[in-house]
Amino acid sequence: MQVLVIDVGTSGARAAVVADDGRFVAERHRRQSPTSPMAGLVEFDPVALADTAVELAREVIDATGSSGGDTTIGAVGIANQRASTILWDRSTGEPVGPGIGWQDLRTVGECLTLRADGIFLAPNQSATKVAHLFDNHDPERSRDLCFGTVDTWLVWRLTEGTAHVTDRTNAAVTGLLLPDASDWDDRVLDALSIPRSCLPQLVDSAGEVANATALPGAPVIAGLLGDQQASLVGQGCVRPGMAKITFGTGGMLDMWLGSDGPATAERGPHGTFPIVTLEHGGTLGWGLEAIMLSAGTNVDWLVEDLGLLDSAEQSHEVASSCDSTDGVVYVPALLGLGTPQWDYGARGSLFGVTRGTTRAHVVRAVLEGIAQRGADLVDAAEAESGHTIEALRVDGGMSANPTFVQALADATGVSVELAPVLEATTLGAAWTARLGVGEIPEIDDIADRWDPRGRVEPASEPDRERWRVAVERAGHWHEELSALDL
After folding, report:
1. Sign of dihedral through CA atoms 358, 364, 368, 369?
2. With a threshold of 0.85, does the pTM exceed it?
3. Domain membership flag for residue 265
4. Are 74 and 437 in contact (CB under 8 A)?
5. Tens digit of pLDDT for each residue in 81-114?
């Protein structure tokens, strides 16, 4: 059985037909970046996003000869950027305005105000974004509107308006769900004047939802996962203590913990957050997430702003031309520091520069700095969970950089295993859809499908104490931002 996967990220959409062995039979990708009308605002066109996703899906179905009533597409899986917010009219299916991206910061003030009432929300969650859209397009709350994250919107469009649903991997990062993920949180809904009638139905991540009648053959939608959870599943991390890091624009470590839910939805003392990893048969899987605010962004900075590299791919060649940074240390805090510090006022910093420092030293220091931050995420996840990460699995664009991967193995002191595909989200959505239709009997069976394209072992021990000093010095550069606790 072949599975169609629609994978919508922050900067583009992908559709792929995936065989039962994980092989991509056909794949199409289209870049579709959000816009920023002014500083701190991130918006996107929901209609264009859905149109692109459906068009790419039809293209890959046609490419495999799987169109028509006898389609061999047995299920559809969806992976998506989380917490981006859309509000649309139930009767017309038309959005009331632009979608608001998860990075959007327009509701920082509202989040700070709510803290006085004991409601702790972050501006990257959906909750205050939904309220903002209502306030601007339906202040009286008199219209019949639907709220959805990207998964909800895609299912609505694929089922031609017959299914208004979401799964808990997405719902749990909206800020609108109870800490135990059992239901929507009436206290938050009341505080933001969000009507329950606009909320989607909560369904399993793996399970038959509805038929995608907008596609040839109307295959059943059977898998819904947020992008980081999809990457976790795609890398076979479905047993307690197993973890992966996705190194893209930012860096996300996710760890599978098991079926025991957290006591709170708030950030833990080591700077990680509880997440729902996957729901199947009404049983929830839980995990934790640690966040690096900028990873690949730092390499883009070398290319696009400093002009030290012609392309991101060249970073390996340049960095490997020297054996060490010769004492140069780079802290990748272009957007502040996430886990464990959560210091929005920290800034990217270079230390130890001398007259002898070369382009190669700087490029190598940037790659090693990102790797050191990866080790910080590992340390935080281990301290928060009590689990030891025996081997770290990685995907994302930076996982193709040998210099970086070796630096990561050195900084963490553990074996680094490379995902069989650069973006494991698509593979994870495929496994989830197969689980949803019973092609994979149990979640644990996904672990046995792990087949890394390579492993890298530690070869040296970096100076982690010097690194900690550098991070401390990079912190609190803008005290007013460092004071924000979001």
Report:
1. positive
2. yes
3. yes
4. yes
5. 999 999 999 999 999 999 999 989 899 999 999 9
